[in-house]
Amino acid sequence: MIPEPFEYHIPKNLEEASRLLAQFGGEGKILAGGHSLVPMMKLRLAAPKHLIDLGRLTDLKYIRESDGRIEIGALTTHFQIQSSSLLKEKCPLLPETAREIGDVQVRNKGTIGGSLAHSDPAADWPAAILALAGEIQARNVSSSRWIPASEFFVDLLTTALGGDEVLTAIRVPVAPPRSGHAYLKLHHPASGYAMVGVAAQVLLNEARHIESASVGVTGVGPKAYRATAVEEALRGKAPSRQNLEAAAAHAAEGIDVNSDLYASAEYRSHLAQVYTRRALEKALERAHGK
Ligand SMILES: Cc1cc2nc3c(=O)[nH]c(=O)nc-3n(C[C@H](O)[C@H](O)[C@H](O)COP(=O)(O)OP(=O)(O)OC[C@H]3O[C@@H](n4cnc5c(N)ncnc54)[C@H](O)[C@@H]3O)c2cc1C
Asked: Taking residues 22-47, what's their average pLDDT?
């Protein structure tokens, strides 16, 4: 289908983009890679009167390290993250997640900022950014703030971003020593999105027990979430198969689990448990240096 008519704007800098967004109120939308917004416009599920294309804001495309943290500009593509040698060394969960997204074309155009701002309930980035306890930077014409990932995803396609705010960056801690990570995903057979996707990071203590675990889950409910009951169940425990299985049993606890043609709520809950256990196992193997 053909989208509703719209006016196209190409701001030269972030200030101009923020000003346009504030000026158009609810009638303006940011365009980043266009790989979620344009399909929605073609289906007329979205009909913004003004499109504000961030394409010229190349200073929002970067990956850098400072003060024990990695910061990524909102316009950084999935492929840039997948292929970053800095991230492979300092935060390998991110490249591992990036390579699971869509196909080569999607990864070349789609941006991490666009994916997080869109908050598709089956998108991959939200699981990883939640598991890493990341923060998301939002800016409007007059101020800037960092939003913890745990507060950012509010509901289906809804985030904590204000209507006049541009998502400008994401930051996550560098992976600490004695930690391991994993992102495991069951791809939807048609769309390739996550039927279930689980990102896990575990930290071992000196006795090689689990000091802490963090688990982000996507595809299961109306929004991605931290599986806090799983995390609690693992704190201080030995990394045995029995403990992992018992903890993973909580993977969909308290979640209004999606049910559709491809998977009933019961089956999806089961998948969430299985993928959580497997992601934790893989993360632990890596934390042990295997
Ligand atoms: C065939 C196909 C397969 C795909 N498979 C997957 C998959 O397996 N896993 C997955 O996670 N995703 C998948 N995607 C989605 C893809 O990752 C998108 O790139 C991503 O969801 C949106 O990023 P974008 O840069 O294209 O954003 P856009 O489509 O440009 O924007 C998406 C939304 O976010 C808003 N927005 C964008 N950037 C900002 C910003 N900086 N500040 C504020 N608001 C902003 C826009 O206004 C819009 O509402 C797929 C897409 C396609 C077309």
From this structure: 95
